[in-house]
Amino acid sequence: MTASRPVVLIDCDPGIDDCLALMYLAGLHHAGEIELVGVTTTAGNVEADQTAANARWILDLCSLSQVPVAPGLPQPLKVELTTTPETHGPTGLGYATAPAPATEPLHRDWRQVWEEALAAHDDLQLIVTGPVTNLAAFEETHSKAAARFGAITIMGGAVNYRGNTTPTAEWNFWVDPHAAAQHFRSTAPQVPTTLCSLEVTEQFLLTPQRLGEVMELLGQHPAAEFLPDVLRFYFEFHQEQGEGYQAQIHDLLTCMIALGRINYKAAETTVAVEADSPLLRGTSVADLRNHWGRAHNARLVTAADIEAAHQEFARGFTLLASH
């Protein structure tokens, strides 16, 4: 008896590393290793309509025009939207720009995409690589929403670790802190969220040399034409931040962990996010010593096999190039 392939719904905000994650998922989908059933987007790196247009373009380039894409909520739950063009470029794709969608209009209701996927699949895996806005809103209107998913994996937080947006906060949680706080209050003890925070994800670095290797694997694939312009912007941003001419690819590593494609370590714990403090907005904390005595709501990823992740990156893009 063989295990069924994972069914994946991704909620993202492309965004450069989100685009690499989508390309990786497309490769696995074409190879029959997963079934990608939908992509919804949040406002984060850029506005929600733009992130949806970016996702639609990436999927079309990857011959996945049948996979639905829908923009989600245009604003965080309670705070004003802040985007990050200095990190991902004016349209979220570095020096590249997505054309107008060539397939379906981007007017589908994101909630409908989620509901259809949940109704059709008993073990749906949700991967969130942007702010948690859509998930928190879905949980507000659907009783025991988290329990309907087979698994939830989130890229977010700087858990007991230095931030990349403020001294203590990571970007996704800072953009919509109330959504992140609400989600972690609502999940225990139904479906513990697998949380991939900065301490682990920033270790997955793409260098110009590794990009060159990926470009060779892609060959004549349509995405190869624009990928250098996308990544060059990201390299330059990280260099300006003192990180060197390379890029942290948080969202791609998160997808690999979500799908169990690399070895990693995780601790069952309780995660909380601060939403209202001006100085500590978006700060995430894990109660690793059980001081709070509260039910666990998360599987906090504490380590991952980074070299294996690079090998899996290459494998996924090889699969993509062959379809």
UniProtKB/TrEMBL annotation:
Q: Which residues cross the membrane?
A: none
Which stretches make up the Inosine/uridine-preferring nucleoside hydrolase domain?
8-309
Task: Establish whether keyword Disulfide bond is in the entry.
Answer: no
Query: GO MF terms on file?
Result: purine nucleosidase activity
Give the UniProt record's GO annotations in the biological process aspect: purine nucleoside catabolic process
One Pfam entry name: IU_nuc_hydro
**GO CC annotations, alphabetized:** cytosol
The protein's matches in InterPro entries, at most eight in alphabetical order, are given as: Inosine/uridine_hydrolase_dom, IUNH, Ribo_hydro-like
Which SUPFAM superfamilies would you find in this protein's record? Nucleoside hydrolase
Asked if Hydrolase is a keyword of the record, the answer is yes
Per UniProt, the keywords (alphabetical) are:
Glycosidase, Hydrolase
Entries under Gene3D superfamilies matching the protein: Ribonucleoside hydrolase-like
Name the source's superkingdom.
Bacteria
- What name has this protein been given in UniProt? Nucleoside hydrolase
Q: Which organism is it from?
A: Corynebacterium curieae
